[in-house]
Design goal:
The complex is a heterodimer of chains A (about 575) and B (about 325). The mean pLDDT of chain A is about 90. By secondary structure, chain A is an alpha/beta fold. In chain A, the strands form six sheets. Chain A has a five-stranded parallel beta sheet, sandwiched between helices. Chain A is built from 18 helices and 20 strands. Chain A has four domains: about 15-35 and about 510-565, Alpha-Beta Plaits; about 35-120 and about 455-500, Fumarate Reductase Iron-sulfur Protein, Chain B, domain 2 (Orthogonal Bundle), CATH 1.10.1060; about 130-225 and about 380-445, 3-Layer(bba) Sandwich (FAD/NAD(P)-binding domain), CATH 3.50.50; about 230-375, FAD/NAD(P)-binding domain, CATH 3.50.50. The longest helix of chain A is centred in the C-terminal third of the chain and has 20 residues, at about 425-445. In chain A, helix 2 runs antiparallel to helix 3 (about 60-70) and helix 3 packs across helix 6. In chain A, about 45% of the residues are buried. With about 325 residues, chain B is an alpha/beta fold. Chain B has one domain (about 5-325): Rossmann fold (3-Layer(aba) Sandwich). Chain B has an eight-stranded mixed beta sheet, with helices on both faces. Chain B has a two-stranded antiparallel ribbon with strand order 10-11. In chain B, strand 8 (about 240-245) and strand 9 (about 250) form a beta hairpin. Classes of the chains: A alpha/beta (about 575), B alpha/beta (about 325). At the A-B interface, strand 1, helix 17 and helix 18 of A face helix 1, helix 2, strand 2, helix 10 and strand 10 of B.
């Protein structure tokens, strides 16, 4: 612009673009890809928002590819995971959470149906060899993620088939075996060398593996039942829960007393209770120190069971006795004729740690002729003495590294710190396997292991004016009278349902490409790109003109825009 | 190729009002004018009454407009538009003329010229950016200022709780001219606003659009809140979004869940005195404004029945890739 001109003189028209209103600004908008709560809650590390976004774009295969970048077995977890993602879903505070597990399951099934290829990383093939012991969820995940990074992986398992507790502990009514066969078969077929019927401590020793391989991952699970007695008393014909379940899964038969009490509050207890109920046991009681889900139960005190499984168990006539324990066995000779229960609660002690306090005077008697403990399992020490040091579980850091044992890693149920809300789940084991694979890759590449963490997004950062109430898709459940020992009880969504449900996603913390910032900027300071901008969105702030009013941040439905002080 | 400067020339929309204008942070009028011109397209000539819009878009010798634009006086935007339209007609050209003004230049000062333009049936779209006071000159009351609002010429005090009189019902006066199309719109509902501009543009004859445009300075709110406040204006019923064809109400934007007016009032400094403790008049005036909103809801039948994709909740719904409807 000619600056010497006086006010009344003739001037060539100029555009206001010469005037950079960006200098007025004291805060600037930036794009912040915060973590959606589903991602934050997922023990397997999935970014559900990311793959739901691909589905919103109508690209199921890309959605599946984004999903299996973290979790190679969505058809399995979509069926068995207690989906903490859904409990965390922001939509739960609005109407009802996205049925993430149903969509995950649908994607997993689609991948099997179309035989979509698992994408491997585009990195050079590695020469190093890694041994993975245990072909359960943790071992399979570790093997898959190592193979994805182009390592040579040998997977050992004592059983003839891969799957671990997916086969030995989860009834086919929850997880049909053909789903396990197909999904796990596809993972193994990627090029994992699988050596079945090879047990640690019997066919191969840990020292042997450590000398033969560059790294060893122990995903051996917890296969030995925890010792159980009541004041030293144990019935002569004691069956423990997981053992009974395994027996039933293999031979299809189980004892059918008139009345049974199962002691424990996990999936094993509930699965066994349902199986026994269907086998004709009239009274099936579950005694657990935890509480049932409800407004008065603290989150860390709830039964560690898939919520819908609990509902179905109650429907089927299983009687739950929450906040109770077995105080005394009533025996006739060495046979149980009843148990005495007492109420208890987990309460903070003087040091603030929670411990169980039983309440004298609340004893009641259950007349049963069988008592089955299902109070959890510990690592089978055979062949594992050098890492267990006499403990029940292997002590590791969050990447599965074992202190003082370079090149040796562990994860899944065999590992000690993984307890609490989502501990001990298939998804947690998958997450463990992935983190261990990262640590192994880091070790063998001479770098630091990293687990990227993004800040979580709060519900109040969303602008809900831009969303509408829409009901969650109903998922079919087998009617009570049609339930048996083999048919899957919960059904999956149809393709149309899955896509519709994905469209309910708020896209918390990530760009929805809704154009709001571009449409509502009074200063034309948001420009749109057809190709992706460097941060993955379709919008670029023009800081030459942005006055920093913050309208875009306020009106962004997803909380993707943050206002930060300008330098 | 993702540098803003190079992207700017390749935007998938017409840029009638370009960046670099001097409007305040979060200016509702700047946004409204941007939305109107980008929907109207490049083949237009604009006339502008004196006011904020005129001042902040054309600081000598620059212009933020990328279409022909004329300004003469406060009172004659409609008159100039009439002349431009007559000249274009004489030349046989079909370029559309849009006259623009604020509420001062439309409700008060340019009212006579506007009425004349409508009465002579000029083929002009008149857009009034309604920010409910004379903001450019320092927030003096206009006949569009709502009842009980504080301006520098309607201060709350011992005798009055802000403006004594009601907001002028301009749309009814426009309706009395029997023009083919008149409507109210809000910056909080850009899809609705764009549709109304396009509808007006395709009509031969005088059309009128009243756009509710929050003014952070004059209304006393943070620029961040401009859209939220505009949205509340609609959702409370204080600013009904209606369309008139030949003076008859042809359609309204139903309110799915009417919001109490205090939600709208409490976010704005111009209504701060309505929340002073211990003044019985504050409560009275809040109830008065609620009654005015209820009156609008009843008069225009704004209470929706059930979920409607075009009601106050549905009209701004987004999905991946843009608004839920276009």
């Amino acid at each position: 612009m000619p600056v010497t001109m006086t006010r009344g003189a003739f001037a060539l028209p100029g555009t206001s673009l010469a005037f950079k209103t960006g200098t007025w600004r004291n805060t600037r908008p930036i794009h912040t890809h915060a973590a959606a709560p589903c991602h934050g809650a997922c023990p397997a590390g999935e970014d559900q928002q990311e793959w739901l976004a691909r589905l919103q774009e109508g690209r199921p295969r890309e959605a599946w590819e984004a999903l299996v970048a973290m979790n190679p077995m969505p058809a399995v977890t979509g069926r068995v995971c207690p989906h903490p993602c859904e409990s965390a879903c922001n939509r739960g505070q609005y109407d009802s959470p996205i049925a993430i597990h149903g969509i995950e399951r649908w994607l997993g099934d689609e991948a099997i149906r179309h035989n979509w290829a698992y994408p491997l990383l585009d990195v050079p093939v590695r020469s190093q060899r890694v041994a993975v012991v245990g072909a359960g969820p943790a071992g399979l995940s570790a093997a898959y993620h190592l193979l994805r990074r182009r390592y040579n992986v040998v997977l050992f398992d004592a059983m003839p088939e891969a799957g671990g507790l997916l086969r030995s502990a989860i009834p086919p009514t929850r997880l049909p075996r053909d789903v396990v066969d197909k999904e796990l078969g596809r993972i193994l077929a990627l090029g994992i060398e699988f050596r079945p019927r090879t047990a640690l401590g019997r066919d191969v020793s840990l020292d042997q593996l450590r000398s033969e391989f560059d790294a060893v991952f122990l995903g051996v699970g917890a296969g030995k039942s925890r010792h159980w007695d009541v004041d030293g008393a144990v019935p002569a014909d004691l069956h423990e829960g997981l053992g009974m379940l395994k027996e039933w899964l293999v031979v299809g038969a189980l004892p059918t007393p008139n009345a049974v009490v199962i002691h424990g509050g996990g999936n094993t207890a509930v699965d066994l209770a349902r199986v026994m109920r269907r086998a004709g046991v009239k009274d099936v009681h579950v005694v657990t120190a935890s509480g049932l889900p409800g407004p008065d139960t603290e989150p860390d005190d709830v039964l560690n069971v898939v919520p819908r499984e609990l509902e179905q168990a109650v429907e089927e006539g299983v009687v739950f006795h929450p906040h109770r324990t077995i105080n005394r066995l009533i025996m006739r000779g060495s046979k149980v004729v009843g148990v005495e229960m007492v109420r208890l609660k987990k309460l903070p002690d003087g040091r603030g740690r929670k411990s169980r306090v039983s309440f004298e005077g609340t004893e009641t008697v259950l007349h049963v002729d069988m008592v089955v403990p299902a109070i959890g399992e510990v690592v089978d020490p055979t062949g594992m003495e050098s890492v267990l040091h006499g403990k029940d579980y292997i002590k590791t850091d969050r990447f599965g590294r074992i202190d003082g044992q370079a090149g040796l890693f562990a994860g899944g149920d065999a590992r000690d710190w993984l307890k609490g809300l989502t501990g001990g789940t298939v998804s947690a084991a998958i997450g463990d396997g992935r983190r261990a694979a990262e640590a192994i890759d880091a070790l063998l590449s001479g770098r630091e292991a990293v687990e990227p963490v993004r800040p979580p997004i709060r519900y109040d950062r969303l602008n809900l004016a831009y969303y509408e109430n829409r009901p969650r898709i109903p998922l079919p459940t087998l009617e009570l009278e049609k339930r048996n020992d083999t048919d899957e009880i919960e059904g999956g969504p149809s393709g149309a349902q899955a896509l519709a449900e994905a469209n309910r996603c708020f896209s918390c913390g990530n760009c929805l490409a809704c154009d709001n910032c571009w449409t509502l900027c009074p200063d034309n300071a948001v420009v749109k790109t057809t190709e992706l901008a460097s941060d993955g969105s379709h919008y670029v702030f023009d800081y030459d003109y942005c006055k920093g009013c913050g309208l875009c941040a306020k009106e962004c439905p997803c909380g993707y825009i943050d206002m930060v002080p300008d330098e | 190729m993702t540098e803003p400067a190079s992207l700017r020339s390749r935007q998938p929309r017409f840029r009638g009002l370009e960046a670099g204008h001097r409007a305040c942070q979060g200016c509702g009028e700047a946004l409204a004018a941007r939305l109107v011109t980008e929907s109207a397209g490049p083949d237009v000539i604009l006339t502008n009454a004196t006011g904020c819009l005129e001042v902040f878009t054309t600081p000598w010798p620059q212009s933020a407009w990328r279409v022909p634009w004329l300004h003469s006086l406060f009172e004659n935007s409609a008159a100039i538009a009439s002349g431009v339209e007559a000249a274009l007609k004489a030349q046989g050209r079909r370029t559309k003329v849009i006259a623009m003004g604020g509420d001062g230049g439309t409700f008060d000062i340019g009212f006579q010229a506007l009425s004349g333009m409508l009465e002579r049936m000029h083929n002009v779209l008149y857009v009034c950016y309604d920010n409910e006071a004379y903001m450019n000159t320092g927030i003096q009351r206009s006949s569009s200022t709502p009842h009980a609002a504080m301006t520098t010429t309607s201060p709350p005090g011992k005798n009055r709780m802000g403006k004594r009189h009601m907001k002028k019902d301009l749309l009814s006066i426009i309706a009395a001219h029997h023009v083919p199309y008149a409507a109210s719109a809000s910056v909080a509902y850009p899809q609705d606003l764009r549709r109304k501009v396009r509808r007006a543009m395709e009509i031969e004859g005088p059309t009128f659009l009243l756009v509710h445009s929050p003014c952070p300075l004059g209304w006393g709110h943070d620029g961040t809140l401009s859209i939220e406040i505009a949205r509340l204006g609609v959702q409370t019923g204080l600013f009904p979004l209606i369309e008139l064809e030949r003076g008859e109400v042809a359609s309204v934007m139903p309110i799915r869940n009417p919001v109490p007016v205090v939600e709208y009032l409490k976010r704005q400094g111009r209504f701060r005195h309505l929340f002073s403790d211990g003044d019985h008049r504050a409560r009275e005036e809040r109830e008065h404004l609620q009654a005015l909103a209820d009156y609008n809801i009843e008069r225009y039948g704004l209470k929706g029945d059930g979920d409607d994709p075009l009601d106050t909740d549905g009209a701004d719904t987004v999905r991946r890739g843009g608004p839920a409807r276009t």
